[in-house]
Amino acid sequence: MKIISTFFFLFVFLLPILASSSNKQVYIVYFGVHKGDKESYEIEEIHHSYLSSVKETEEEARASMLYSYKHSINGFAATLTPAQASNLSKLDEVVSVFESHPMKHKMHTTRSWQFVGLEEEINTQLHFQSENSEGLLSRAKYGHNVIVGVLDSGFWPESKSYSDDGMGPIPKSWKGICQTGDAFNSSHCNRKVIGARYYIKAYESVYGPLDRKLDYLSPRDKDGHGTHTSSTVGGRTVPDAAFMGELADGTASGGAPLVQLAIYKVCWAIPGHEKVDGNTCFDADMLAAMDDAINDGVHVMSISIGTPKPVGYSQDGIAIGALHAVKKGIVVSCSAGNSGPHAGTLSNTAPWIITVGASSLDREFSAPIVLGNGMVIQGQTTTTFRLDNITHPLVYAGDISLPNVTQELAGQCLPNSLSSEKAGGNIVFCLRGNGTRVGKGMEVMRAGGIGYILGNAKGQGEEVVADPHVLPATAVGEYEAVQILNYIKSTRYPAAKILPATTVVGTSPAPFMASFTSRGPNVVDPTILKPDITAPGLNILAAWSEEDSPTKLATDDRRVQWNIYSGTSMSCPHVSAAAALLKAVHPTWSSAAIRSALMTTAGLKNNNESLITDSMGNPADAFQYGAGHFRPTKAADPGLVYDATYTDYLTYLCSLRMPGFDPSFKCPQNLPKTNDLNQPSLAISKLSGSVTVTRTVTNVGKGRSYYFASVKPPTGYKVNISPSMLIFRHKGQKKSFSITVEKDVYCNSQASGQEYEFGWLTWFDGFHTVRSPIAVSSV
Asked: What is the pTM for the complete model shown?
């Protein structure tokens, strides 16, 4: 009886306690904006008092605190049980309480800046002092005196991209620090990288102390991703850069080579995962970095990180941090994500963020295949391994898979799926699908294959990501993959040879949209059109960590100073650099004005003078490229801008029934429609009847000017602009107009068979073309 009673006590009383303690997660408790009337130590004590109200002891409360956000963001991160988090969320002064989710950044230069029109000669000398050049780089002094904060996996300080030769002094306004740690000391910061910090408390609360074999406990980058993105933003000019000394050779440069960089390491290696899977970045760590970056004095934040799926603004650490940054006039540029081609997949959906999709360059790394019948198939690769210039037996992976591999997965060259007996000595043809591209090549090599061809599966089109495979290899588009498969099936002894890779510049059509780039519509708020813009993100060369291989495979022992990488992570820093240049030329412009200038001057055509397509060759739309492909030089003189203030964003949040982000702000009694936010784009969902919205433009061009409106309405809809002419008498003058959208009863509104239809509104003064995308749905 006593034994039963003891068991009953354990079951009823002790187990819930144990379950509760083991169920702790990292939560962010967000109060909005600081009122500015308290010192840092007072703020931290207040945060501790909130924790004490839900914890058993004062000691437990203090031990559970990870971060107290004390500069601009008012909140804290702590380990809480769901019940404790729920209790805190019920307090009136709390805006939101949300779990600090890990945000896995995936693959989320020598050519790209020339491709987008920044063709001025760049070098490490301060020749920007010339008064004669009219180019954007010269006008912006190459980004001189602008500070860009990069949130990522750190940086590799020995890279030539971070040299401070010829750089000016550190700005007096800078408040940041150079945080020391593993293989990193204060000498690794200089007049180029003026600050470096790392944030790991949320990561370690989940995974435990960092395994120092996986990563450096310091701002040093062991992954390569952060080095790639930061050098794309503001890397110095480096001649004779190339991948493995052979491909993409030329002069490498960031878009704004004289900006000063501040590095915030927030992403870390995932224990137990292949490094190719990417790093993980926690909301709580990133919010701490953004709070510091705002206080440190950055002018632009570049964040090539996003959530695995769209998240509401009050639950999104990046959105919250970006709103506080915008209040201080900081431009925040973020990647859209790599979950395409599916619709409604993009992250970083907040209207105060520049959300960037990924598109291609006019450069390929050609590695053709010559089939045994003489047919030449175009392929691409960045591997520098070569086969003898003779034909070798060619086999399809689906024909040599092991018996335990399902028919669905046969042909995809997943780990331990190929028969060594049948693969040995052959070139193996594999299909994309599950697994990583470089991992498939590793499997071919394990099974004894001497070469590898990767073919796009159905729906992936002609976009080819060029990879640095671990054996002779090349990759082909969907059409070419079908040709190869048909050849193998029609021939008794199929054979092929893979020719060595060469760099080919001037390819067309370019740009086209990458299939991996995440798409709209914006599922958080369909009245905000996202993404905003697209930039090069396919096969981009930039600096790399010399602690990581180009494939990021643990079994790949190659080391490189430059790597070719793909993803919206690569497109985001292109736009961040453009924003830095615009900030230098127009220091008084708001973040919204800079975003507007980039969007309304974006291009819609490729280098064939045709409209931009997707990777399948079909016309792309605003849910892929936003306003179009960015053109930095055009953005420096946009003519008109759609400006918005911090107060406008708070009013917009009130319209979404999300007050409280700033306790000092009271929502107006008459709330505007959410799509009345002064965006340089327009999205209307579930249109019934007609909708009228208001926009306001500010003249930032010449003094007296006349702008005339033209509209390409979405199919099945009518769009009316009133007034259709705007007269400006001086620079800085604002003019408002209305846009009325209604169904065209004389036209089938679903003519294209799609949920959304797309159109354009353009203002033109004879010189400036100010163009805005329109997306409308009636269902």
From this structure: 0.93
